[in-house]
Amino acid sequence: MALIGVQEGSGMELDLRFEAVHEGILVSGSADVEITGECGRCLDPIKYGSSVDVQELFYYGDSQWAAEVEEEQQHRVENDVVNLEPVLRDAVVTSLPFQPVCREDCQGLCAECGARLEDDPGHHHEVLDPRWAALSGLAGTAGSSDPAKSTESVEREES
Ligand SMILES: [Zn+2]
Ligand SMILES: [Zn+2]
User: Fold this and answer.
1) 25 C-alpha to center of ligand 1: Å?
2) 134 alpha carbon to ligand 1 midpoint, in Å?
3) Whole-structure pTM value
């Protein structure tokens, strides 16, 4: 399942121009769509409006130009009607971010415990370098006779 896309049935505002050209009908303009998805870092829901540019030439079925374009890439005017749906879908899909995020600076989730770093910015885990792991016991002992702490307690007693 894609992380992000246009939800089915969501509104779409089209601002399109249709021009008759030799080969067919040139459709150009923009479509305002509502993108919904999930942040790839913190999994929060994402929702934003996006405007995508659309430009597509729909060929007349019997035009000589149509033959010059690869079959699967060409759109055709069928019974005087153009099917915009696949064109719009392509335009939207290409405009979607490869890795959607709720914010550019989204902190994401803690790799250690899965907590949201956003909610807990100071959040971190002691990750001991294995080279120092043997010293961690020593550091603990030193901490109890921390010189800063003992000075503090002395000052408190004096006041
Ligand atoms: Zn996020
Ligand atoms: Zn954590």
Assistant:
1) 42
2) 37
3) 0.62
- Which ligand ends up closest to the CA of 124? 2
Residue 78's domain comprises 4-95
Does residue 125 lie in a domain region? no
Q: Tell me, yes or no, whether 139 lies in a domain.
A: no
Distance from the CA of 115 to the center of ligand 2, in angstroms? 5
> Hey, is 101 helix, strand or coil?
coil
Distance 113 CA to ligand 2 centre (A): 4
The full DSSP string for 43-70 is: --EEEEEEEEEEEEEEEETT-TTGGGS-
Per-residue pLDDT tens over the stretch 10-56: 888 999 999 999 889 999 999 999 999 999 999 999 999 999 999 99
Domain tally for the chain?
1
Coil, strand or helix: which one is 115?
A: coil
Amino acid at 96: L
Q: Cα 95–96–98 angle (5° rounding)?
A: 125
